[in-house]
Amino acid sequence: MNKIKPITWCALVALLPFIFSSCEDYLTIDEVENRTIATDYYDSPQKLEQAVVGVYVDMRRALLHNHAWLMYGEGRAGDLTLEVDMMDDVAAQRLTNGTLPLRQLTDWGYFYDAIQDANHLLEKLGPAKGGLLSSYQYNLYRGEALALKSMAYFYLTRIWGAVPSAEAADRGTLLTQQEVLTRCVQWAAEAKPLLPRLLLNDDGIVSTALTEVRFNKTAVSLLLAHEQLWLGKGQEAYDGLTAVFEGQGTDSLSNFGLSLGKDSDPDITQQPYNGNPIHITKEKLEAIYPVGDTRRSMFTIPATGTTASLIIAKQDLLMIYSTKEINLLMAEAAWRAGQLEAAKSYLTTAAAGATENYALLTAGATENYALLTAGTFADALLRERQRILMGSGQRFFDLIRFDKVGQFLPSYTEGDLAQGAAYWPLSAQSIQTNGLAQNEYWSN
Amino acid sequence: MKLLPKDVWKFTVAVLASFAGLHSIQAQEVLVLDSLPATNTASLENLLQGQAAGLQVKSWTGTAGSQSIINLRGLHLNTTDESTMPLFMVNGVPIIANPSAVTGINPLTYYSAEQIERVEIIKDIDQLAALGVQAPNGAINLIIKEGTSGPLHVHAHAAAGVDYVAGFDAGKDAFYNYHSASREAVYAKQSLIQRQHISVDGGGDYGSYLFGMNNYMASGAIKDAGFQRQNLFVNAKYKIAEPFSIQFYTNLALADRDGRYAGQYNRDLSGTEVADEGFFMDDNKNVGLLSSMDLVYRFSPNFHLRSVAGLSYETAGRDLYIPSNILDGEVLAGSEAFKRQMLSVHTSLNYTHRFSELLNLKVTVGNQIVNSDYRITAVEGMKGLESGGSDYVKVVTGYNANQAKAYSDSEREKLLSFYGTLNWDYKQKFFLNMVARADGSSLYQNKWALYPALSLVYDLRGDTDLPARFKVGYGKTGQRSGPEQYRGELVGLGDYYGGNKLGITQLYAPFTDAKSVDIYQFDAKVDVDIQSYLRMELGYFNKRYRDFTYMRFLPNIQGLDYAFETGAALQLHGLEMNAQGQWIRRKAFSWASNLNVAAYRNSVTELPADLQQTSLTHLSALTTGDRISSLVAYEGSQSRIIGNGQPELFGGLTNDLRVGKVALGFTLTYSFGADAVLESYESAYVAEQLQAGFPMATGETAFYFKNDLGKESFRYQGIERIESVDFVRLGRVGVAYHFGDDLQKWKIRDAALTLTGENLWTFSSYSGLNPEENITCIRKADLGYTGTALPASIVLGMKLTF
Question: Which keywords annotate this record (chain B) (predicted)?
């Protein structure tokens, strides 16, 4: 037998540490081509901006699928109709009849997708502060993430009432509407100072077109005031709105809507307005917009037939916060803060300028709002919100906030509304996967 | 090979090898291939059909160049061909053996039977643990022939014949019901098979050499479709110096398969008949290369270093053009390219230590690196043509797609392993094998997994009159779990702001606990020599699988659709029996037989909690003890087991007879215990809710499948029949005439005239043409995963050795 010399063994043993030392590095593949993996992807401002845009796209999905923005608003309120199968069911408050589009409308998944996107973005933004991003970019992206999250929760609680938290600290905990709104206000208030009035494009130049499709100071201020009004904090809303809008020229203001575009999900329409006009019955049109009201020009009114159709001025945008709403919210905030005269003034201004943008005031309503009293102001404001914001999807939410659901939808009794009839039923998926119980009204 | 060896035993072995093509030694662990072809197909796996207990080779299609489904004690939670396929190696070098999704050409066609010396079937845990995570489903090692010592030898083999779909019954053809007018016409009455092989070898003190080439062409049972393969190979061994030797092996293959629209791929024709496919193109081309270099350095007779580097490489390209007369006024063109490479380096130190005359120890320590890189690029475009003009005008107008789809992806993986084995041998009676392997994979954040094994052998032959040997073994191995899930993945949601901005989000979060499936295996077997003519081996194995990776669907407040997790457990156990008989061994007459039987049972031993919220929801009808291979469907609103997709008793019987210069051999294969579910062509609809009950057509079952279309939409598919697919098949039969010394005057050392037949007869109650035609055991209404009819073939050949 030939023995191995000890020195040979020593050499072999000495080799082992070298072999093992770099194993971990060797087994880590840093470059993964043609695949967007989560680890280490966000290494440039452009990639972080993709995550920002992702939140907008998921919000767009939430509001566009099955014409959700309209169904949650004027569709359910019975003001506007679309030629879709579920329309009759929605208008007749048959929200649990089991058809696929309705089942999809009862599911809140897209809103929570947007919340997850926003939280994911906020997590990724932390390490990028001061390094990867300029302070403008950091503030903008963070402000957008907070505002979009606030908006998503705000929609959720207006549609379903009490909804679960998707925050890491208490994920799955069912929050009352008060709790949801309180958080919404906190996030929007945090976003407000971060967001600019006007956004810069990739070349560093102010872009009104870009500002219109991204959260800006006008939009977040309106969102915050809106949420505060839901919470009954009129004075805070009034103070906030006044600070932002008092004395501002129109150049610093901007609409805010979701830019329409191609979605990777083929079921999400790119052109929600094409080929399927939004109708209103002539009878309802006459009731809402009496002869002489210039807002009738928002509709194409054929000489024959029983319906008119809503004119969509900007076909490439799903409007969320129009500058038209500034005076409406100012009026409401002033009224709820106990300043009726100021409120009437804002309402008059809003009514007068409703057909054009904020700068061009023309005669609108036929009513004289200077004669309103504390007892009649709410109805007038609600009516003007209906007229001015027609098609924005806010009508049913306004009915809830003004406690007028029973008045406009008499099929609901006080008892029904106490059981939660004003809110949408939960989808089977929402109930099953979150361990929730169906809304008391819809479970019957 | 000597034609008529004087030794009767060698003579019988020669007969065995000549006509069944296979002969087993060491209790069916090693299958020896002779130079005569035993299969008329180009697919090597068909040689193994029915030859080893536990090895299933499922002939699901007659499309030439396709791969049969190969299973060697393989099981998986989501059973697919790949998830249960054994590891294939050539001279110990791992190779890419599964067909690429692009062309479907079988990489096991890159080698001809004449190149293979023997096939090692590796099932025992003490050998599998040493292969680690590469071989959860066993391993098959093809040992390539080397040049033989002496002056130059030339081997030539040429064969030609026909294949045909025997007694084609259009009514039984799964495709026929779908396209009744066109189906029968696409089958050729007969089509040509031809093959040629030539090799040259020699050897001496310097080493040995062997090189040659092969050609195989089959027109295929389907008209205008066909397969051909050419390959060149060289195997050279050179002794550089006394302690140092090197061996090079290279095999370069070109494979080409043409497809036909009707009857081969398409299950979705808009019309019932395609009159002219003259402009149709489905051209599949593969280039396969295996190159290896094996270095051995002997420090001493007891100590040597061995390093083997291998490169398995394949490009697969498919060009597709569908003219407008098929697509009703539109043309479609596409091109796909898939490149796969696997680079491996395996280095080991081998030392044998003799403690005494009684006790020996063999030590092996080594490491292995396997890097794989897969890349795919595909472009496809479609254009609708203006109306008017004949279809052929539209065709030649050409393709100028205005809507092109492009796809590109790549997947890389690194595997780094260290292992050691200790093989103790006491008095040549007790053998103790100890194995440990550490595998590190780039697929996981937690890189390393340890796979130990232990086996004990007791050979009674020396001590007692009982001619038996016992072996038990226990150990652990593993199976990799899919892509790089631990990294998480982002997806594009859509465009924004005039299409200038892309929105992205997370598809799923990183799964940092990703790991391989753990497989714990127990083996026990005994082999007994009964007199001198019968050797029997009886074995039991039990494989327990734990920690599969699956998706858990998240609550819809999570914003992510799913997260990965590991869990679930399965069991596969069974009995294997192999009987090798040498009944008569006389010079004028000999008869040998081999019978192998495998009786398997798989079962679920653990399922995740809240199964409905996982990607395993289709298993909801199963409880502990049920077969994972159960076929599950709905009846009313209840999910029920309606059949079993895996055979529970299968194997083969081979007999070889020789009378004078004439030899006859045949192999029967059989399979029992599996079912097929035949979907209805009529009872299917998409509906939001099941409002109508099944059956929707008369004479169908009350069962149906529910296929999730996403977004709470479902497709309901009725089931026409559930059938047994038990069968017995005369897989291969061969007759040969050996000329003996008759041709010596022409310097021909060996010559034989052979006639081989394949798939000549199948006995089964299955109503289709081939009881194995359904890959998933479900004959789907769209005929996806269903093969074409299996043709029979008869080939006449001549083999010469100079």
Answer: Cell outer membrane, Membrane, Transmembrane, Transmembrane beta strand, Transport
